Amino acid sequence: MRGIEIVAIRLDPLANTPAMRLREIDGSRREFDIFIGAPEASSIHTALEGAEMPRPLTHDLFVMTLQRLDVTISKVCITEVVDGTYYAEMHLESTTGVHVISCRPSDGVALAVRAECPIYASEDILDAVGEVPESDGAEEILEEFKDFIENINPEDFGR
Question: Is 159 within a domain?
């Protein structure tokens, strides 16, 4: 399993469907999309923005219930993709041990964002659908500028 992060929640222009863009945290930083439902997209976006709602949303309620029962979401793992359908597991820790629950990746991610727990994807998924994004050169330009700033001398400007 490799740690992943949420890059964006967006509307895919071709499918006209919400998608979450995920990226490998380390390594080659491969990215992939998972199409999700509009309610889940809204829920994830709301949690990422830290927006306060007047009443708890479904995912908020679930996390609050787990907290009240002294159960912690320790991680969410996106485990496989079969015929374009992604599968995930939510790992719960309690006094009785670790419990693994099957879930949709969108629900798992919505809960992970709220519980502030790590999200992982299997190496097989990253190998199958992960894409290394093309560099736009911005990072290289930024590094060159940092080097310039660190090595600049007042004499370089003359009088």
Answer: no
E strands, the chain, in order: 2-12, 17-24, 31-35, 72-82, 85-94, 97-103, 119-121
Residues spanned by the domain of 95: 2-154
- Tell which residue, 93, 92, 76, 91, has the closest CA to residue 34: 76
pTM score: 0.80
- The Cα–Cα gap between 141 and 125 comes to 32
Two structure tokens written together for 52:
């306060």
Q: 55-72: per-residue pLDDT in tens? A: 988 999 999 999 999 999
pLDDT beneath 70: ranges in the chain: 135-140, 154-159
What are 19's two structure tokens? 């998608």
In 3D, which of 89, 93, 91 has the Cα closest to residue 70? 93
